[in-house]
Structures are given as C-alpha cells and as structure tokens.
Amino acid sequence: MREAVTLSDVAREAGVSPSTVSRVINGTARVDASKRDAVLKAIKRLNYQPNIMAQGLAQGRSLTVGVITQEISSPYYGEMLRGVEQALEGTPYHPIFASGHWRADQEEAALKVLVGRQVDALVVMDSSVPEERLLELVKKMPVVVMGRQIEGLSCLSIDNAQGAYEGTRHLIELGHRRIAHIAGPHSHPDAIERLKGYQAALQDAGLPFDPALVVEGDYLEPSGVLAVESLLARGALFTAIFAANDQMAYGANVALYRRGIRVPHDVSLVGFDDLLSSSYFSPPLTSVRQPSQEMGWEAARWVLAMLEGKSYTPRPLSTRLIVRESTSLLRLPSSRLRLQMS
Amino acid sequence: MREAVTLSDVAREAGVSPSTVSRVINGTARVDASKRDAVLKAIKRLNYQPNIMAQGLAQGRSLTVGVITQEISSPYYGEMLRGVEQALEGTPYHPIFASGHWRADQEEAALKVLVGRQVDALVVMDSSVPEERLLELVKKMPVVVMGRQIEGLSCLSIDNAQGAYEGTRHLIELGHRRIAHIAGPHSHPDAIERLKGYQAALQDAGLPFDPALVVEGDYLEPSGVLAVESLLARGALFTAIFAANDQMAYGANVALYRRGIRVPHDVSLVGFDDLLSSSYFSPPLTSVRQPSQEMGWEAARWVLAMLEGKSYTPRPLSTRLIVRESTSLLRLPSSRLRLQMS
DNA sequence: GCTCCTCTTGACAGCGCTTTCAAAATCTGC
DNA sequence: GCAGATTTTGAAAGCGCTGTCAAGAGGAGC
Predict the structure, then answer these.
(1) What percent of chain A has pLDDT over 90?
(2) What residue has its CA nearest to the C1' of C25?
(3) Residues 110-169 (B) with a CB less than 8 A from some CB of A
(4) Contact status of A86 with chain B (Cβ, < 8 Å)
(5) What is the mean pLDDT of residues A306-313?
(6) Which of A130, A285, B117, B183 could form a disulfide with A281 if both were Cys (CB 3.0 to 4.6 A apart)?
C-alpha cells in the first residue's frame, strides 16, 4: 500500500550519495552549492519525506514528547494540551498523549505505552503516580511534573491553596458567612490544597469551619449536582458555594436552578480553573483562573530546553480571581436560605 | 541518558539467538517450551521493552493512527478523541493528534506531520482538505473521513441537514416564526448542511427564509456573542435562535443575558452537538445530539478493520433532538422583540 | 611542479528489530 | 537403525537513516 520514496531514491535521482542527501537535509556539513541544489530539486521532484522512524532509530531519539493527562476529553486538559501543542509547534517535536483517567493503574499503563514508544521526554499532569516511579523515569529522560511538588523533580504548579483562599475570601468580602465547599477527590494533592485554602480564608475571617458544609466530588459535573443535592437534603444552610473546579460549579449551578434557587440572587457561586466556557456560562461564572494553556506551554518549553541541555526557568504561574456575575453581595434576608448568624 | 536494554541483551541472557527472542515476542513461530520460558524470564529480569521505532522500521508500520482534528482543546473534539482512544485501547495502535485550526493550510501542515511520522492510518475530522488530496492519501493508507461525504472514500457522518431540520422544526412547533440561525463557517460542509436543514424546515412549515436572520460564525463561543450582537444591532426581530453548534449557542446565550433578554422566556435557543456540558448549562440547553464519542469510536474501529484487511460496516449514527429548558412556547407579545407576522 | 592542507564526498557500519533461508535437531515409519 | 519428513533454530540480510572515516579534489605556498 505504501511505496515510500527513500533517501536513496533521492540520492540516485540527484546523482549523489545517500550521505550527501542526509547532509543537506540535516545541514550537518557543508555541501557544494550545485549538489545541494540538485538534491533539493530531487527532493521536491520525488516529493520525498524523511522516514521519522528510521531517523529516530539512527539517532536514538523519537522527536516525540509524551504527555500524560487524566482525561483527554476534559476541557481543563484540553486547554493544557493546546498549550503543549503550541509550544511544540515549529520544533521538530510532536506531542503524543495518553490518559490515566484518575486511576493509578491506568496511569502506569499510559506511562508504559509512552516509554515503549520511545518518547524523548515526558510531561506528567496531575498524576498520582508514586514519586519513586517518577524519580526513576527522570534518570532516563527529561520529565516535568504538573500539579504537584516533588523534591528532585522539575515541577510546575500553581498555588492551589492561595487560589482557593482568594476565591473564598471574595465570597466573605461580599458578606457571605455560610459558604459551602465542593471539594475535589481527596486522593489528589491539588484538591487537598484547595480545601486548605478555603479553610484558611474562613479562619482568617474569624469564621468557623463547618465540616457539614463540605462535600467531596470528583471534579466532574455530575458530582457538583450531587453535592448540592446532598447539602440541600440534609438541610445545610449556606448562601454561597466555592467549588474546587468549574465543572463541579456547573453541576452545582444546574442543581440550584432546578430547585428554583437563583445564582447569584440567592446563592453566590465561585469555581476554580476558569475554563474557557466559564465566561459564556449564564450567569458568567466567577472563578479562580488557572492559566491552563500557559501551563501546558511552559511545561513543554521546559522539557524542550532540557532536551537541548539548556536550563530553563519557567515564568511564575499564578492564579487570579476573575469576578463575573455568579457572585453578589449577600442579600438579607434570603427567602429560602436564612442566614444563620455565627 | 537512555541506556536501553535491547533484544540482543535478552537473547544473550536467555542463551538463545535474537531471532528466537523475536519469535517468542511476536508469536511468529513455534519455539521450544524450555527456550520460550528462558526468554520470558530474561525479558522480565531485564525489564525489556521492545523499541517500537525499530519494530516499525523493520515491519514498515508504526502502529500509530493519525487523527486530524480542528482544535484539540474544543470539547467537541475532546469527546471524539476520547472515542478514538477507547477504540484503540487494547490494540497495539496508539493515536497521534494534530490540529488544523479550521484553516486549510494548517490542516495540510498537520497532514504532513502525520504522514511524515509514518502513521499507518488516518482519521480526518471535519476537514476542508481538498478531495483530491484525500483521494491521494487513501492510496497509501486507510483513511476515514468524518463530517463529509466524498465519493470513493470511507466517510462517517451524521445527517447534519436532518439534525438541523429537527432542531428548527422543534422551534417552529413551539410557535416560533422568526428564527435566527447562527451558521458555522461556510467553508465547512457540515455547516452548509446545517444551514440547509434550517432552510428546509422553514420551507416545509411555509415560513419565509430571511437571509437577514442568518449570521455566519466560526463555531467558537465569541462568534455566538458577535452574531447576536449584530442581529440586535441591525434591529432583526426574532424569538428563537438555532445555532449551528453548542459553543456558539453558549455565546449567544451570554449576549442575550447581557441585554436582559431571558432564555427561554424571551428567546428560545437551540444548539447542535449536545456537548457534555450542555446539560449543565443554565438553562440546560436544548440541542441536537451528535454522538461524538461514538463517532470517534466507530472511526477508529473502521481504520483498524481496514488495517487488518477486514471489511467493516459502521453502525448507523444519527442525531437526536434533546429537549431541555432553553426552549419554550412562544409567548405573545414579547416586550422587547415583537413578533412580526409573516 | 610538488608537497601539504583544507574542504567535499562516498563507502560502510551501525541503530534494534524482523524475516527469510538453510542447517541442525527431532521425529516418522518401515 | 536408517532414509525421509518435519520441526526448531541461528546466521544474515535488510528496513531507511545517520555519522565516522578515509579517499579524492582543489588550493595555497614554496
């Protein structure tokens, strides 16, 4: 089916040796102008494209950067991958993705696939892969880890606690006293950090931390719905919700909508991540922006630098509260959800 | 950095020849049980993993399926890619993605990258790549094209016109007479089909087609905002909007929200695609469902079958109108948008 | 005109794996 | 126990490319 034209074909066509063709392609050495021209013409004429696998074998590298995400279809990873893609554009490298689906065993499998495919470097996003495994990998190739901090590894992450702190404080400043939190899975470090930030904000404002106002979700929309339903079912009183990510905030919003609870009139809602679509939400969602695309970009640049043996200092990545229309001043008294003075 | 263990290492360790090792790995021929055991043990002991690039070179295949999307970070493609990923799971093949960003030149570049990387097969999603180019590619490898129908190619697509027809008819049945349409880019076949379906529904209902109610967008949220703004700016009268995809519907929704126009109270809104997030929209979006993930799955299965020389008949893929809460019976008279009797 | 240098070029040996091909080993049947 | 058929095995030739090495072609200097 494939009758590829090879480097030798080009050599024959141009009347030179294969080595010469290789040289003009890679610019590895001077080549007489006339021969160079002949080669270039032959390449064009035959529509020659180097076989990357052969190049890779010969040079011991695949020109591929492996990227482990948790879920390729998630908008959050989508943005990061876009960043990676952009950073690699114009370089000879190309990304190759594999998903861990938030499960340690699947992450390990994904890792195996990528390593088996001879990736030259690795970007690992939000993994729950054991540290030792990563430390072992880093001996073999450049690795950048996102979403957690590990001693001895190149890590790229935002300050999740700080972001959560700001999101929560924003609600407090609007007068809210009973703020519910929809947390991420406790198995993930970033979820823990966000919970901590939420608690810290409460504490700094002299507000009590009420465990009954915290529900654990799994970062997906349906869990946001469930979280609100369970809060409501057990009669929890709250005038605001801080969700550990936008997707759960979306779910929360719809659950509130179904109960006739209006956002932000009755309940204010803050998310985390600031997905592209959050500004098109109705009401547009107030959210803690995480520069996802930029993070993907930085991670990719970083591994590229490592591949070239250069050093690289990633730009500091910080969260920023984006205030939109899903939050408003506490209205007193709310007809449905009475404010419990603390 | 990488000191890989090779097949010959295994052979030496097991006391057999490289050929034998290859045979037990690929099961290409009978091997004496005792030697097989020795080899397997050696593989385990050395933690050997075959070098895919070398395998590929030797066998003339890369075990890679190239996938051209338009935008990897888009939720729509995300779902399709998830389908592709799932279909390839458990097979030796792995997907590799490249994005065309809805631009013919970038699509061509993406195609070049994938072909250069020796993909064994290609899934091309919603491309505007010229037919001839695709017909040329199909001579070299299995290709499945999604989102358009081309004679002589394996195409997988839903009936866009039919879907659009149903979405529009739903609005008509709710009493709407002046229905605006936010179209997709006219360069893309599916966008054209959707426009046609919209027109057909109007016609069948005896409603006039008013070009002033059609605005072209680019399938992204901001263009939905712009579309509504431009409709409003030129004083167009409408009580419903049919958007050619959900993302533009999101944009339309926010633009309406800003003007104080309520969905569905003042204007009903229908999207197309039924993204995962659309059911969490507020109001939950009525949309023409396109089984994106399943489409990705079918496409991948199809190319796999072709790679194995088998024939494959993809399951019929059809759209289905999902009625949610962004559409409602026409209310007369609307305070802001008076109904123009036709 | 000859030697010595520098620059350009082609031959050739891999990269790690598969796959013929033929030799070695084993098994038949008489 | 031996010829012949049948397995099982290893040697060796690639797959398409890179990179070393040494030979060939020019130039410079005397």
Answers:
(1) 81
(2) B32
(3) 112-113, 115-118, 139-141
(4) no
(5) 92
(6) A285
Same fold, A64-157+292-318 and A160-285: yes
Does B282 contact A281 at a Cβ distance shorter than 8 Å? yes
Tell the residue number behind the tokens 């999307």, with chain if given: B69
Could you confirm whether domain A160-285 is CATH 3.40.50.300? no
CATH numeric code, B64-157+292-317? 3.40.50.2300
Residue B108 CB contacts under 8 Å (≥ 6 apart), including other chains: B129, B133
More confident call, B316 vs B163? B163
CATH topology of domain A7-50: 434 Repressor (Amino-terminal Domain) (1.10.260)
For the entire predicted model, the pTM comes to: 0.88
CB of A253 within 8 Å of any CB in chain B? yes
Identify the pLDDT of residue B340. Answer: 42
Which chain D nucleotides are covered by protein, judged by CB under 7 A? 7-12, 14-20
Calculate mean pLDDT across residues B139-165: 93
- Chain A window 13-72: residues with CB closer than 7 Å to nucleic chain D are 18-19, 21-22, 25-26, 28-29, 48, 50-51, 54-55, 57-59
Average pLDDT over residues A320-324: 97
**How many angstroms separate the CA of B32 from the C1' of D4?**
23
Could you give the strand order of the β-sheet that contains B179-183, starting from the edge strand earlier in sequence? Answer: B214-216, B179-183, B240-243, B268-273, B286-289, B320-322
Region A206-231: what's the mean pLDDT? 96
Three-state DSSP class for A341?
coil
Give me A122's structure tokens: 């690795």
CA distance B310 to B306: 6
Characterise B269 by phi-psi region: left (phi > 0), alpha (psi -120 to 50), beta (else): beta
- Neighbour-count burial of A49, counting CB atoms closer than 10 A to its CB (0-12 exposed, 13-18 middle, 19+ buried): middle
Each domain of chain A, given as residue ranges in start order, spans: 7-50, 64-157+292-318, 160-285
Please state the length of chain B.
342
Instruction: Report CA(B20)–C1'(D9) in Å, whole number.
Output: 7
Q: Give the pLDDT score at B81.
A: 97
